[in-house]
Amino acid sequence: MPELPEVEGVVRQIRPVAIGKKIEDVFVSDTIRLSKTGGKEAVLKKVEADSFIDRLKGSQIVSVERRSKYIYFGLRKDGEFLLVNHLGMSGAWFYVGSLMAIPEDKFRKHVHVVLTLSDGNLLAYSDIRRFGEMRVLNEEGDYPPLLLMAPEPFDENALQHFLDMSESTKYRNKPIKEVIMDGQVISGAGNIYATEALFRMKIHPNRAAHRISRKRRAELFQAIVDILLESIEAGGSTISDYRNINGESGGMQNRFAMYGKKQCMTCGSVTKTLKIGGRTSVFCPTCQK
Ligand SMILES: [Zn+2]
To answer: For the segment 228-244, what is each residue's pLDDT rounded down to a tens digit?
Structure first.
């Protein structure tokens, strides 16, 4: 599943090719249309395919921003509005001259939304498992969960927010791993980066938040920020279906010290796993206390 660094990578690549361009045409796949008539809402949320097309067609892309793991396309046509996209498990954007130019068959076969830009190129959204989301919003608050997201981890107020939240009655008795993976506490630190940060800090993932001193929690927060930045630098990590808009994989997975490891690189112990907050947590029983 793409986490913050992967989404940041996609946004940085889409921005220069999309900003200032007009969306001349919009395509929505039959699979998405059929899921609507079947009562399911694959990818397009709370909007019919035809109204989605009407709304986007003829608009200009004025901004492309990342907020947590969401991509916000700022669009202008009569007023300004937003296309908000979450990549889900396997969403990927491709900037190509034609759909045939999408590098891998598995992505080419699952293109569900295509924006034809005024430069003649396509921004094609492929989603193999269709857990991604697209919403058309007049403003962020039209989808209230967006307003509950923690500050961006690189914002000045993010550390204070994390410290306050991890001391609150809602979170203080929960395992620290569950706390840092909660998007209302820290934005964008999913299973991969939480696992890596806890290993780097030698903190057991199941330790209750209140049993870690404020100073150590502040250091843990910094470790998460460092790892997110390192991963952005490495082009994100590719666990299964993440690709950047040119179809390339990231390189961060080669730098993991704990995620997906059977043996601790530091002490050689066999790693253990625990289910925490519904996710499998890998940790070293010797190094992490
Ligand atoms: Zn170890």
So the answer is: 999 998 887 766 567 77
Active site residue 145: no
* 50 Cα–ligand 1 center, Å: 55
Q: What is the per-residue pLDDT across 76-103, written as a single tens digit (0 to 9) for each?
A: 999 999 999 999 988 999 999 999 999 8
Tokens of 79: 């007023």
Q: How far is the CA of 183 from the centre of ligand 1 (A)?
A: 28
- Of the candidates 12, 22, 57, 279, the residue annotated as catalytic is 279
- Stretches where the chain sits below pLDDT 70 are 238-241
Q: What's residue 73's pLDDT? A: 98
- Compute, in angstroms, the gap from residue 56 CA to the centroid of ligand 1: 52
- What does the pLDDT read at residue 25? 98
